[in-house]
Specification:
Pnp Oxidase, Chain A; 10 strands; alpha+beta; eight-stranded antiparallel beta sheet
Length: 169
């Protein structure tokens, strides 16, 4: 199956389910060298008159360096049958293993980024802005820092323009 480029206004889906429950793979780099990671935190909307996706990556993740070094990354969404592959990509580092080999996913160039043939929807994203989450930024005292960070570093947020959207034909 191949991908068809579509206008974002043609899409109708629940981002809470797509991101929070089905997850996405964030992928950055070139055909020669890239990495991917599973993400279940993010937002989609309109900012600065642009359609944007915001994602969050800890600086100790291997994918972080790839996103930092590249102008573009992709956010790829999959059907439930690929849950095991996404779980693997979230639990293992590309520093220590070949995620493509381990999961059986097939890399493919997608616009200005890399994705996977098995995805059913892909957004190509161009970084616009980034900022670091910090403990002192929390406005409530309901335990979020302790629950989600502990000794782990806080995430960097990336606000990125969705420059292209692809769906399976």
């Amino acid at each position: 199956m191949s991908f068809k480029k579509i206008d974002l206004s043609q899409l109708c889906f629940d981002p809470f389910t797509k991101i929070g429950k089905e997850w996405m793979l964030l992928t950055a780099g070139s055909k020669e060298k890239f990495n991917t990671m599973t993400a279940s935190w993010g937002q989609m909307g309109v900012l600065w008159n642009k359609n944007v996706l915001t994602c969050y990556i800890r600086p100790n993740r291997y994918t972080y360096g790839f996103v930092e070094e590249n102008e573009y990354f992709t956010a790829s969404f999959f059907k439930e049958e690929y849950r095991k592959a996404l779980s693997f990509c979230g639990a293992h580092s590309g520093r220590d293993c070949d995620k493509v080999k381990e999961t059986g996913l097939t890399p493919t160039e997608m616009g200005s980024g890399m994705s996977f043939e098995e995805a059913d929807m892909v957004f190509v994203c161009r970084k616009l802005y980034s900022y670091d989450l910090k403990e002192e930024g929390f406005l409530t005292d309901d335990g979020i820092p302790e629950q989600f960070f502990g000794p782990q570093p806080y995430h960097r947020a990336y606000i990125a323009e969705i420059t292209a959207a692809y769906v399976k034909e």
